Amino acid sequence: MLLAKGAEAHLYKEAWYSKEIIRKQRVKKDYRVIELDKTLRVTRTVREANLLRNAKRAGVPTPIVYEIDKHETSLIMEFIEGRRLKEVLDTIDPEKRKVISRQIGILIGRLHKHNLIHGDLTTSNMILTETGKIYLIDFGLGYNSTSVEDKAVDLHLLKRALESTHYKFVEEIFREIIKGYREEASSVLTKEVHDRMKSIRKRGRYLRMSGGG
Amino acid sequence: MLCIGLEGTAHTLGIGVIDSDGKIYANIRSEYVPKSGGIHPREAAQHHGVVLATKLQEALEKSSLTFKDIELIAFSRGPGLGPCLRVTATAARALALLLDIPLVGVNHCVAHIELGRLVTGFKDPLVVYVSGGNTIVSAYEAGKYRVFGETLDIALGNMLDTFARAAGMPHPGGPKIEKLAKNDSAEFISLPYSVKGMDLSFSGLLTAAVNTLKKGVQLEDLCFSLQEVSFAMLTEVTERALAHTEKPEVLLTGGVAANKRLQEMLQIISHEHDALFGAVSQDLAGDNGVMIGWTGLIQFIQGDILDIESSQILPKWGLSAFEFTRT
Question: Which of A56, A78, A100 delimits the end of a domain?
Fold first, then answer.
């Protein structure tokens, strides 16, 4: 069953050896040349599987990867029952929102402590289960990096995403995220990343844009 | 109501005459072309200052109008290069005082989009604005144009221009790259592809392309690959924004909007998401005074008028920093 049709991949919910699984199929994009298309799809499929495993090892809940198919550029992985945070974050009670935001920060801090960059942190890519556990999904744009800049960009992009989807609560949510991040990562790393993030915002084109041709 | 719009954020001095029904009377443009290298802000400003008076006269003659017919002055208040902005702002203030008519300060980026909406008839598009100074994927939501994706370093047009210069192609480089790239037997050369979340980075791609050029590959192949990689990056981000916002239209504007290959790529994803696609024609997609005039009229109707005393330029005035009610 086609569950979701993303810009990059299609998600299918299927049975696989009597298990309920998600098949993430990276689809061919007709707008780009075949060479580029194939390279992007294969590298992203393999990289995503590695990142999902490494994040899990670091203690961040992610779906288990059961199978990698390079030829079909698809991943077969665990189905996580729950709701996307995008749909719940604006409507839950404020105290709960705080707790969840803090938990998001802890998970990101954990990723960054292990030099894992998610690459597309949005509340669409976070699933809240019945038991209150948050899963991070879709590491399709993730990569490994030790650099403060990359970690700061990761957080910067999250804030940007919050600004467009949860603009009513963005400041509160982000404050809690940083609190959680600090709990998990060292205070040195937190400060470095947070400071760099602010400077990225300043250098951001939306503040500094020059007009032209 | 008739408005003169003065554009002067970068290379181009633009004078546009337009009325509140959207009828365009004149679109006069004069571009500063550097003798070598990139844009020099002071020289560009000097160019604008030198040609402004004659171009203004030309615009009125083209419109068969006199100053007496003009009821509003609008100018590009930012974002842009300070020295250039100051020239047009000064001219705008002088005209407003001399003719005793209201003055409106316009955001350059908003103006590109609003004129794009006028000429395509699109009501609520996802906007792809690509030029020498900007690379922005944006849509209007709750009072302003929100930025969904943008470049983290240089603009796509700047990347193409700089590469063209490195390859010895004269200004403007973009169309020449497009011509060379349009070769059915061109071979794809792998170049770094850099999409970070919804944002883009072109500086690494530029460096890699210039280095590859020095190795002595076929220039046609490199131009082809450079376009393919950079446009695919932009198209990928646009498609994600389109999936996210579910807008019914995709509008391409800015100086790079004329590129047929970019149009083709965006057309494909628009079609896949059941959205209409429209690219603004070249004379109105590049920097021009008409877009400033048109947006000035929209702002004037909403009562957004500037006092001369507080009409200072805003060189870093971001797209999302301007709030207004869109009609």
Answer: A78
